[in-house]
Amino acid sequence: MLNFTTAFGQSVIDEISAPEGRNSTISDLPTERIVKVSPSKRILVLTNSQNSYGKGDFITLVIGEQAVTRALVAKTTDTDSGIKTLKVYNSSLWGQLKAGASVKVVRGDDSFLFRQKATAENEGDPTKIKDEDDLFNDSNILEDEVALDENPNRVIKTDNIIAVSFSRIDGINSDRQTTSYNQFNGSWSFQLEDNIWVEALYGQSLINDFPASTLDTTLSNFEVRAKYTISAPYYSYLMPYVGYQILNATSPGAGVDDGSGNDFEAEKALVEDMKKSQVVFGISLLKRLVPGWFARLELGSDMVNMGFALEF
After folding, report:
1. Ramachandran region, residue 56 (left: φ > 0; alpha: ψ -120 to 50; beta: rest)
2. Which residues have CB under 8 Å from 32's CB, separation 6+?
3. Which domain holds residue 290?
């Protein structure tokens, strides 16, 4: 009797110790299908045909034998569940998460996936995730209200985008020839209505030896723009824009008699000619890199602009 009790107790302990039956293989994991993927890929709708997980569970999606992403089950219905991405394990496989794709699901502890990989590759730390950044903070994920029925009219779901960019802006040189100057700028965009944005941009740079060889000029650029979002392939977005640009130039030494014999009036005229106010137009391209982050390229009558943007 004692032997039976001991054996039974040990079997229970072994069963509890094995997440999803850790002694099982990856092929034994339940397979579910992705029903829908939000444009930001932060939220996925996943089937739960085998009732293998529930609301509030942390799950890992697996393709082949590779862990792809860690997620939180935020909402469940009779047949489907809404999950929110917490962490990306494999960025190349993460790009394969599309509607209709089949994935295997690990509920709870997923460390056995990395122990298998570490054993195969003879690596030291079995749970270390290499070359991937945590995309979201697990501690405050529960504070987000996740709705499966996202606004279908919005191409980009978030309200705000901030960006830092490097630009080339047209101006003139000391010989009054058209040239381009380098400038860094920052911008903030706000979505007023579905797909309609307003944006403010400011940049500043220092031009050496303008309007004369011994003088420097500060060139500042301020713009306000209206933009409209259009969905493009490969998780990209086109945003045609129209706006107004104020380009200002200041050179405190221009027009001041310093004994150099320069034409002071010509110096002042060059600085004034650098200034302009005009209507501008162009197009922005946003290419999603990972959830929340974009690469940004702009071509317009005001500038050529390249940088990175963050949505929130």
Report:
1. left
2. 46, 47, 48, 49, 50, 52, 102, 103, 104, 105
3. 160-311
Q: Which amino acid is at 208?
A: N
Mean pLDDT of the chain: 82
Residue with more model confidence, 34 or 122: 34
DSSP state for residue 25 in the 8-state scheme:
-
* 108/309 Cα distance (integer angstroms): 33
Task: Supply the pLDDT for residue 22.
Answer: 43
Distance CA 18, CA 78 (A): 27
Tokens of 208: 């050496």
Q: What is the DSSP letter of 9?
A: H
Q: Which of 85, 118, 143 is the last residue in one of the domains?
A: 143
CA dist list (Å): 89 to 49, 70, 135, 167, 282 = 25, 7, 10, 34, 37
Residue 176: how many CB atoms within 10 A of its CB? 12
- Provide the pLDDT for residue 257: 63
For residue 263 the two structure tokens come to: 């034409």
CATH of the domain at 210: 2.40.160.20
